[in-house]
Amino acid sequence: MSGAYLARCRASAAAVPGADPDWDPPTDDRIDLDWSPRFIVGACELAAVGPRQLIAVKRALEGERDVDVSVLHHAEATGSFGPPPTALAPRAVAHVAAELNALDWDRVLAAVPAERRHSLAGAGFSGDPVSWLTDRFTALRTFYTGAAQRGLFVVLWWD
């Protein structure tokens, strides 16, 4: 999201009864990673990626509290499930995008012990967990690269 869009949401929440921020980002500016974030982090931890890249992966999936997006913690905006939304400012988005692009995902998966690969997508998952997780990581990297190129904020929430 652009800074102007976030400012508009804040103004809308301040002006409208019930504090509805009129949050409706364009579909092309959204990504749904299903329930993969903890499994992406888990794969990186199992593969013992370096601390710099692990921190960047966690920032990409958890955001930070530095950007105030509390106005979006509203049932009409991001629902009422999970923790309050977090965000990354454009500079942090660019840093995260660079780290995600530097991360060799194939090496990450190759470093996951063979006996742990079946659990990469959690208990009860049916299908190919490596393929599923690779698709989600690739989507995450592509999303951050595009946001960085456009100088956008990234807002994160669970719904």
Descriptive overview:
- With 159 residues, the chain is mainly alpha-helical.
- It has a domain at 35-63 and 82-156.
- It has 6 helices and 2 strands; from the N terminus they run αααβαααβ.
- The protein has helices at 3-15, 37-46, 51-62, 90-102, 105-111, 129-150; strands spanning 86-88, 154-156.
- Strands 1-2 form a two-stranded antiparallel ribbon.
What is the element layout, followed by pairings?
Elements: H1 3-15, H2 37-46, H3 51-62, E1 86-88, H4 90-102, H5 105-111, H6 129-150, E2 154-156
Antiparallel strand pairs: 1-2
Keywords:
2 strands; two-stranded antiparallel sheet; 159 residues
Give the strand line-up of the largest sheet. 1-2
Please tell me how large the radius of gyration is: 17 Å
DSSP strand count: 2
The separation of the N and C termini measures 18 Å
What does the main sheet amount to?
A: 2 strands, antiparallel
Share of β-strand residues: under 5%
Category from helices, strands and their pairing:
mainly alpha
Shape: globular
Proportion in helices: 40-55%
Low-confidence stretches: none
Please state the average pLDDT score: 86
List SSEs in N-to-C order: HHHEHHHE
Give a brief outline of the structure.
The chain has 159 residues and is mostly helical. The chain has helices spanning 3-15, 37-46, 51-62, 90-102, 105-111, 129-150; strands at residues 86-88, 154-156. A two-stranded antiparallel ribbon has the order 1-2.
